[in-house]
Amino acid sequence: MTDSDPSARDAEYLAKLQDYYASWKSIPSYASLCDVFGIASKSWVKAILDRLVKAGFIERTPDGMMIPTRDFFARPLAESSVQAGMPVAVNETQGDYFVIDEMLIDKPSTTTLIPVKGDSMIDAGIHEGDVAVVEKRNVANIGDIVVAIVDNEFTLKTLDKERGQYILRPANQAYPVIRPQGSLEIFGVLVGLIRKYK
Amino acid sequence: MTDSDPSARDAEYLAKLQDYYASWKSIPSYASLCDVFGIASKSWVKAILDRLVKAGFIERTPDGMMIPTRDFFARPLAESSVQAGMPVAVNETQGDYFVIDEMLIDKPSTTTLIPVKGDSMIDAGIHEGDVAVVEKRNVANIGDIVVAIVDNEFTLKTLDKERGQYILRPANQAYPVIRPQGSLEIFGVLVGLIRKYK
DNA sequence: TTGACAGCAGAACGCCCGTTCTTTAGGATG
DNA sequence: CATCCTAAAGAACGGGCGTTCTGCTGTCAA
User: Fold this and answer.
1) pLDDT digits (tens, 9 = 90+) for A138-188
2) How many whole angstroms separate alpha carbon A118 and alpha carbon B197?
3) What interhelical angle do B10-24 and B30-37 show, nearest 10?
4) Fold for domain A1-96?
5) Does A99 lie at the interface with B, CB-CB under 8 angstroms?
6) According to the CATH classification, is domain B108-194 in 2.10.109.10?
7) What radius of gyration do chain A's Cα atoms show?
8) pLDDT digits 0-9 by tens, A82-120
9) Nucleotide D17 C1' to residue A16 CA (A)
């Protein structure tokens, strides 16, 4: 069973699919792909797509829909010039939005952005003006950086435990450790950080 | 014709759709959306989607497939003025919404993402593993943090001038100032920073 | 109390979609 | 000249998909 070795022209078809996807951000139906590929039969489109799936450029969701993989976005980029000082920069990909979002945000519905005020976490590399990406939930692990509500104010600190009691530890010696009396109200957990220069 | 005012629960449905999309990067069939939304009838799913289309969160390709728009990826930015106890104000509509990519990237075609190695800029709050958002260009101002090419390697340093000569200043006393002989090759300028926790 | 409407359930339908099978044309190969 | 193999075309089909319509239930205002 020779099955399917990657056809020579699959690269060409892949290129057309990438162009289409760049425009519409979806993989169309087989019928539409006939137009995209310049082919008249759906069966051959299926054969091509099956090979692209096997080659790892596309995958299927549980619903059978086809979505691109990371390899789908990979650019050819001249490898020989790597030594010449040119970038190995990983992410030369897709010049559109939702790249960084995808990276930082797992659960969009519970994620919110909160600007950082003050320098109490500066030793953790979190500066005033940075934007904290916070996943809203009220449970966290020791060592997580959390957004807690203390005295009716947001505060960003590292969650720790001291003699069975939760405490909030700043990352700046100029600030005191916060030892809340009673229960500690956690608003969310820091999952990412964004900084804009200039 | 009552048409459709945005239903109160549409925000909730949108949130579920966003979460699904974050996982699968596609909008599933109406039947699957019944499960996602926790709804039993496809007709109601269609009604919801129609409203989301009209509200500008999703749109349709020529093939009738549904794809997210820019607004679909917008995240709420909490106002710093949330002293009033519960900052649930974030949840309700009228806050500011931001798309992270648009926030950080002005010129997509010349912007690239480069992972940070080493701790030579740690005093500037730039840690190993952070991702630098770099705008590719070969001119920069004094004080800018630049990606320069030194000895065929990328290096991230602050651009400075010393006796009429450009130098690269690290933000870590353990590292030396770089004084390039001859011209200085600048790859790009740091315009943003991304960090992912956990 | 009575509608009027929003919020959904459920059935019914026609068409398109993905799949499979069969057939064809045109190189290679020998 | 016979034979493969690749690269398609094309027909045929069953089911799922989106669409439409009709019906049900709770709520709230008049």
Assistant:
1) 999 999 999 998 877 889 999 999 998 999 999 999 999 999 887 889 999
2) 20
3) 110
4) Arc Repressor Mutant, subunit A (1.10.10)
5) yes
6) yes
7) 24
8) 333 344 444 444 445 567 888 899 999 999 999 998 999
9) 26
